[in-house]
Amino acid sequence: MQSNMKKEIVYLISNHKYFVGFLIILTILELLPVGTYTLLNAATYKPLMDFKLATPALNYILEPFIGIPIYLSTTHYIKPASISIFSWGLLIVLIYGIIKRRYKKLPIYVLAYIAGFTIFIVYILFTPFPLLKAIPKDKSFCLIDPHSHTFYSHDGLVTLRQSIRYHKKQGFTGWFITEHYNILGGIAEENITKLDTHKSMIGEEVRVDHDPHFFLALGISSTVTAKDITTVTALARSVHKQGGALVLALWWLRGPVDLVHYINDGVDAFEIANAGHKQHLTASIREYAYNISQKYHIPLIASSDWHGWGNYAYTWTAFKIPGAKDYTSYQLQNIIISMIRNRNNKDIIPIIYDYPHQYWGVMRFIFEPFFDFYYYFSTLPFKGYISWLIWSVLFMIIYSVYKVYRESYYYKPAIMPYVLFIAGSLMSLFYAVHKISSITFIPVENTLLLTVIRVLLFYSIGMLAIMTLLLALTIRKKGV
Hints:
Number of strands: 12
Low-confidence stretches: 408-414, 439-448
Structural class: alpha/beta
Mean pLDDT: 84
Distance between the termini: 45 Å
């Protein structure tokens, strides 16, 4: 009995050496004492012991399917990383075609790879991944998102109720809707949450002439985008006149910035983390902002800047406001504005979910896929490692069964055009609905419609994937 079992194990390993090799590498990386992703102070990048992270069980169960997209959503430099990953994938496809001497099929391989990469990007952008939640151990703290959008912004993709559900799942007690050059979304969403324990508050994202940066006007009652406001000083004066606070947003995107100059212009706080635009915020820039904050007692905040492009965000701002859920939206908004205006930065903590020990340099971008492989698997929580282990073994078993019964596969190429037509139609419908919801200013709640269309989208992607697999099997079997 034992002899037969040993033979089966040896046979399994010899016929699945790539799977076994992957599991060995996975285990080695898991054993490395490198730490993991955690909640950090976004200004100092030191771990926050007074806050804990709640991870949905579904994250661990489906780790191989959602872990890598979530990891890529937190990358500091999304554009260079995407280019590097795409280029390496394309290089591997070309090398494979050349080694196999399938020169005539190379264009097909390249097109298939581009299509697959595109579907993967769509998967990251539009899949509603389970959201992490930050929980303060000190109940006098509440979590606020100072910067987010709905379809009242020209580039927003989410409805008011989608925004409310999203912020609740992230653990926010309150959030500001900061539409581009209007406060319509903030007013509409505040009305929905008036009787709720979670509060939506009003803001606006604006720019002024002769200044390249974005500003958040928080706690205002009317738009501040008047034509006569052409300087930061005039903008600050207008915001303060309405009892609001002015925040300099995304200032690190445009090179060196003199933050003291903006303090003198009347700016009340600075963003130090933005989940939509984390790139270019280097350690030296972050240290500079922290030193300015300490010297002038200027609060630093962390924002989601959520537009609906991607479901995943990893930033919160903690305000020490005992009993925050008992206040109305207007009362909570006034307290937050007062804390920012009075420079009460000791009771305002910017929070980010990140891994602080990553290397960021030229070599990182050249060999991005290899760095990503190392950082993702070496920082994987133990439950995530177990999930990868189980799914890998399951896939190995399924592949073994396929090898035994592959002769039973049958495929009719004639149905492929119909499948492509249906899938393409569903994808077009999905993007058409999203486009309409992003440009309209009519507050139509189409959440159910968007959900149905999203399901149909991924159903169509699944159909394409299955048909592509069956086509590949037929080509391999019949050589047609």
